[in-house]
Amino acid sequence: MKIILYMTMTANGYIAKEDDETPWSDIVWESYCEFVKKRGNIVVGKRTYEIMKEANEFEKLGFPITVVVSDSTGDEGADKIFFVSSPKEAVAVMKEKGMDEMVVGGGSTLNTGFLEDGLLDEIYLDIEPRLFGKGIKLFSDTDVSVNLRLCEVAKLSKDVIRLHYRVLK
User: Fold this and answer.
1) Is the distance from CB of 98 to CB of 1 less than 8 angstroms?
2) Where residue 64 sits, what CATH number does that domain have?
3) How far is CA 160 from CA 37, 59, 65, 86, 151, in A?
4) How many structural domains are present in the chain?
5) Closest by Cα among 42, 34, 46, 31 to 5
6) I need a labelling partner for 57 at 20 to 30 A (CA). Which of 16, 24, 43, 92 fits?
7) DSSP secondary-structure letter at 62?
8) Domain region containing 146
9) Preceding amide of 45 cis, omega within 30
């Protein structure tokens, strides 16, 4: 199974403001929705799950199979929402559901967990033309270091680009 991290961030590496606000353009949201819908799944951390649930974003994503990596349980829903305690358990659920590709959708702690466990195969980064003085970084602090190979650079709009990387293992 291919595991893909897909995030939008500022030019200086923040995926949200400190208050969790993500003032991204419509083009990146539409692109993200299309990406997740095509794969039919998403893995998120507990805080990201709560934010997305509150904003009714799972409906906009086509109600994908959702795995929430959290220390606590939540409102598991039939065969669409699952709570697990680790990235490796999230992978096991997606394999059980027959997924060929899996989308990791944040936040920072979850992204770092997948990175530290050596589970990421590809990274898509939509870069917004913004700078936040403070905020939530793409990855939380870690000693892990990985090399990437640039696969593609795409211009999504006049000011927004997408970087597609393969993680070298």
Assistant:
1) no
2) 3.40.430.10
3) 21, 25, 28, 33, 17
4) 1
5) 42
6) 92
7) T
8) 2-168
9) no
